[in-house]
Amino acid sequence: MIKDKFLVIGSSGQIGTDLCEGLRNIYGVSNVVAADIHPSPNGESGPFEELNILDAENLRKIIIKHSITEVYLLAALLSANAEKNPAAAWHLNMQGLFNVLELAKEKLISKIFWPSSIAVFGPHSPKNNTPQHTVADPLTVYGISKLAGERWCEYYFKTFGVDVRSIRYPGLIGYKSKPGGGTTDYAVHIFNEAITQGKYECFLKEDAILPMMYMPDAIEATIRLMNCDSSKINIRSSYNIAGMSFSPAEIAREIKKHYPDFVCTYKPDFRQEIAKTWPHSIDDSSARLDWGWTPSFNLESMTSDMILHLAEPKVSNI
User: CA-CA to 146 of 20 to 30 Å: which in 31, 73, 78, 92?
Assistant: First the structure.
């Protein structure tokens, strides 16, 4: 029997760290190959390949070497970092996708996961309960690249039969790795600073409501989508999914339930200008209907779980 083998590109990033662990727990360590331009600072628990996603020749060699059947392409420059170097961000985000799509077109791999983002929405998109199909006019290079990527994914599916699947991630919050330069990263930083410093200066306004999701829900959604029968996948651009929506002030109040002396102040920077073009809440009814998506965490349960893991004593091997 032919067994699936998985390649996670961008494995050392915020999503990649958790996704590799989730896939290895299900399919076995040896069947999930991690790949990144730099090894994980925490070390690797399974097969690892050094890979620059722009190096199409090396990508092909790695896929053949490990008999890869499914690729999870997570390597990208995120919203805030991408604005610092738009040309490099566009090249990385788009060419990396093309390199993987072309290998699937050649039938070298059978299935692709590629993440999109709420960054595809813009100032004229509905802010509340943003529909699956609506105006998308992003103002950031990250959002523009994700919107273009959605169209290319659907094109490769319809034209070449490439089985590519995608989720529009909201802001993601996790405790296993550092954030990667996104506008919603405050919701990770705030926990670390609350525990270690007792205070935090937020780069968004206190009332900047954005869609968010706890990382375990994001990983569950990703794996659930990839395991779904192809006939049930009715959207080949990218699915809306939702977890919870809150503002910096709301998460600060939730943290204060655990750390009553915690103080959050606000000093908005350029990331606030990005955030104000994004939705406040997301309509994910298509994902719920097509492949049974439903989140497990809300703001209260996520906050408790984040603090539980971040505040627990670290065990030394020395």
Answer: 31
SS3 120: helix
Question: Which pTM value belongs to this model?
Answer: 0.92
Among candidate residues 258, 243, 245, the one with its CA nearest the CA of residue 303: 258
- Nearest Cα neighbor of 22 from 176, 212, 220 is 220
Are 169 and 113 a contacting pair, CB within 8 Å? no
Under a CB-based contact definition with an 8 Å cutoff, are residues 70 and 133 in contact? no
Label residues 233-271 b or e (16+ Cβ within 10 Å = b): bebbbbbbbbbbbbbbbebbebbeebeeebebebebeeb
Whole-Å CA distances, 258 to 13, 206, 253: 28, 19, 9
What does the pLDDT look like over 3-35, one tens digit per residue? 899 999 999 988 999 999 999 999 999 999 999
Contact between 286 and 235 (Cβ < 8 Å): yes
Q: Identify the DSSP state of 315.
A: P
* Bridge partners, residue 168, by sequence: 116, 240
- Cα separation of 179 and 149, whole Å? 22
Token pair listed for 303 = 């906050």
DSSP code of residue 106: T
Helix (H) or strand (E) holding 149: helix 141-160
Amino acid in the structure at residue 63: I
Average pLDDT for the chain: 93
Is 142 among the catalytic positions?
Answer: yes
**What integer pLDDT is reported at residue 1 of this predicted model?**
43
Confidence of residue 180 (pLDDT cuts 50, 70, 90): low
**72, 142, 156, 214: the active-site residue:** 142
